[in-house]
Amino acid sequence: MGRMIKAILLTLLVLIAAIGLWFWSKTDPQKLDLVDRIAPGATEYQGKASVGIAYGPDERQKLDVYIPTEVADKPYPVLLFFHGGAWRDGERDGYGFLGRAFAARGIVTVVADYRKTPKVRFPAFVEDTAAAIAWVQTNIGTYRGDAGRIYLMGHSAGAHIAMMAALDPQWLAAQKLDSTSIKGVIGLAGPYDFLPLTTDSSKIALGHWPDLKETQPIHYARADAPPLLLLTGDIDTVVKPRNSKALEARMAELGGQSKLKIYPKVDHADIIMAIARPFRSKAPVLADSVAFIKGE
Predict the structure, then answer these.
(1) What parts of the sequence cross the membrane (predicted)?
(2) Which residue from 39, 129, 198, 260 has the least number of CB within 10 angstroms?
């Protein structure tokens, strides 16, 4: 009997170690998604995402769609999200927690991937952003989304490319669209005004461009831009709050619509973590974003 107990305990230890290794092999967003799934409390979203839909020929040009499960008498507003990762890292499949959170609140949510360095450099990932917007504009009605109420959201580098696509008219024009296709943009800790380039990732992604001002969202701020909701944390040292402050000030100077919220004691990772169920006490990112989308 003693040998049997020892064997069982050894098997359990091996199993726990294997699960631990598997968990720590995941990316941070994938870990966050898993924790969101298994966290105590009622499951918010009962639906099933449509995953791996191509919006372009490249393997990275794919997206997932989360549809609200409740019955509605009219199409839902739409949120198109782009993840961060310094233009080189990240996968859309780590952001199911975000898709589920917004879909549970009556918003068709699209989580898009895009090409990254070193395979491509600027402006390829902005072109992908515009291509994903065009796919949503054409196809989202099939998923009960309202093509007339499309909002963009991005975190970090994802906020950069979302803002570039919304503010610089050339990218949507290449897709035969204009910025009236976008009802608003939510930027989470985005780099909008970050010259000179100081990080290796930004130099690799953008440093080759002849006029670096053309890589900066603030350069394209304009009065007739879609409304902006700029969310950031006051202790973010990766993308400092001055980026959001500068863009908000420039929009105000030009007569554009923008709103800035700076969350206390929130850093670069906290602001996206706050959308996942276990970490919503960090900041009301989800509630503020939903209110912006629904005009509350």
Answers:
(1) 7-24
(2) 198
Look at residue 24 and tell me whether its pLDDT is greater than 80. Answer: no
Q: Is 191 helix (H, G, I), strand (E, B) or coil?
A: coil
The contacts of residue 157 (CB under 8 Å, 6+ apart) are: 84, 85, 86, 87, 90, 125, 191, 205
β partners of residue 258: 228
**Residue 266: closest CA among 247, 239, 287:** 239
Render pLDDT for 186-228 as a digit per residue (tens, 0 to 9). Answer: 999 999 999 999 999 999 999 999 999 999 999 999 999 999 9
For residue 3, name the pLDDT band (cuts at 50, 70, 90).
low
Tell me yes or no: is domain 41-294 CATH 3.40.50.1820. yes
The tokens of 72 are what? Answer: 């509605």
| Alpha helices, DSSP H, located in the chain | 2-24, 28-38, 96-103, 124-139, 157-167, 169-173, 200-206, 242-254, 270-273, 285-294
- Rounded CA-CA distance 199/182 in Å is 31
